[in-house]
Amino acid sequence: MLLAMRAGNYIHNHGALNNTLDGNCASLHWQKDAELRTYATHLKKAGYTTGYVGKYLNQYANKQAGGVEHIPAGWDHWFGLVGNSKYYNYNVSNNGVAEHHGSDYAMDYFTDLIKNNSVAFLKKTIRQSPSSPFLLVSATPAPHGPFTPAPQYSHVYDGHKSPRTPNWNHHSDDKHWLVRTTSVMTDEVANHSDMTFEHRWETLLSVDDLVSDIIDTLEAENVLENTYVIFSSDHGFQLGQFCIPGDKREPYEHDIRIPMMIRGPRIPKNVTLHQIALNVDIAPTIVALSGQTAPEEMDGRSLTPLLFPARQDSTPDIEDAEWRDDFLIDYHGQGGPPCGLSACPGPPLDNFHVTDASNNTYTCLRTLSPTTNTIYCEFTMTGYVEYYDLAEDPWQLTNTAKTADVQLIAKQKARLEELRECSGPSCRK
Length: 429
What we know:
Blueprint: H1 2-7, H2 11-14, H3 28-32, H4 39-45, E1 49-54, E2 77-81, E3 90-94, E4 97-101, H5 105-108, H6 110-128, E5 134-139, H7 177-180, H8 187-220, E6 229-232, H9 253-256, E7 260-263, H10 282-289, H11 304-307, E8 326-331, E9 362-368, E10 373-379, E11 385-389, H12 406-420
Parallel strand pairs: 1-2, 1-5
Antiparallel strand pairs: 2-3, 3-4, 6-7, 8-9, 9-10, 10-11
Helix pairs in contact: 6-8
């Protein structure tokens, strides 16, 4: 989903299928293709000073793809984590030079390092060119695993339990293979899942500090009221839902929904919009906020028509008919034992981070309008189908693909096939 944010494209158009080099994650092909057309390259061409601080992609700085010397196109200042999420004992590429960090909190805790580097970039950039535009991305691994909170926050949420939603520890026989073969959590596993929940919240307290310091810096430098701030994430998470102790790779609401908040000039305060906003909309929105027209090859739509009121005394508004009421969800399962689709054992109960398999590959049509709230999914390798009417079944407890109206399912299937092949304008219909 990070790739979708940066390039503004669905998976089938940006080409990165999973978190491996072979899956095009930070590969040489990615560098020569989608990486050349992110929002950073567009803003750089428009005269922005650009800075990226934090996690980039799981395979970033792989020696087979340029190592730490590779600085992705469009970035003037680069402070990128080597590989996947860590809080201590990691390497970064500091403008193309390898820099090692150990286990000392004051010097090495990565969320704080992102905060300090981001603030330093802002102060230097604004003071050197007060009237010049800038773009800063602060990308924290938190609350990603290994869920390591800062020492001052390590026990703040002791005893808190993950939300006991109706689908928590709910075993379901009518879902796809990976969920069907997941056993009910024991008390020991549920307790471990709750600890993950506690630690995730605790890691976010350092993110709160980061956000606060960035906002304070923008205010102190007298640019806050002329700066757009976007806060979001790359995926949801499940902690016990459908018996999965902790992961993010399923097509259910707790995995696919993300927060998105935007503040800045002319954007009304305390307004919640009901229209669908997607991760693929972030890139065209950033390009549009810079005063440019988003490229036609981006699959997403600029959110600016929703953000700005037509009059100073009104709230943003757009007719639902002019906005999307459905979208594509696409995931490619990564790996799994070579034992076929039915002979594989279920995922281990002590696996709290990766619950995945090659046959966990699917595309879904998510429809959300004033009259419809549904999701239709097809699992590519098995042909398995799931369908839920969330107005009737908000926790997706019962798969009704086999009992729903045949014509309704056919219509869902046809629309999903359209989106699987869409490109640019046809994705925005």
